[in-house]
Task: inverse folding
């Protein structure tokens, strides 16, 4: 398994809270989350090796509900107080704007690729006649 393993981390010492996560002086895993399409056997081995609870969950919302049910983590109001409501709002606007720009770029690229495919595909019949220096050309 490479990359991140979803779960719950206990943190202590100096902690920096950011809108999209945090950094802590010390941390240790508390539980691992087995999400759909997760590698169950590998997570089971990790949980057993480190003496952790393995939480079979439906997705990120299930992990959030698990934490809220057990009063784990920081509430949204505490994060807003620590990070600042203006910073959180600005970060949300920036992420939303980035998402819109990404969608626009995807549409532009798709239209360009589609236009190129239509222009160079030999079996597409356009039925146009072009007039140039070399004479008349029938575009197919």
Result:
């Amino acid at each position: 398994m490479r990359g991140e393993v979803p779960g719950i981390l206990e943190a202590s010492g100096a902690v920096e809270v950011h809108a999209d996560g945090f950094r802590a002086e010390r941390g240790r895993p508390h539980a691992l989350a087995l999400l759909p399409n997760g590698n169950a056997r590998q997570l089971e081995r990790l949980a057993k090796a480190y003496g952790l609870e393995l939480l079979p969950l439906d997705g990120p919302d299930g992990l959030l509900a698990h934490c809220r049910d057990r009063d784990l983590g920081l509430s949204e109001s505490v994060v807003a107080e620590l990070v600042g409501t203006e910073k959180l709002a600005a970060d949300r606007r920036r992420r939303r704007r980035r998402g819109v720009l990404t969608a626009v770029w995807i549409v532009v690229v798709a239209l360009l690729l589609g236009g190129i495919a239509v222009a160079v595909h030999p079996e597409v019949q356009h039925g146009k006649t072009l007039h140039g220096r070399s004479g008349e050309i029938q575009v197919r």
About this structure: Residues 130 and 136 are 6 Å apart (CA to CA). The chain has two domains: 7-83, 84-140. Residues 84-140 form one domain. The first strand starts at residue 7 and ends at 18.
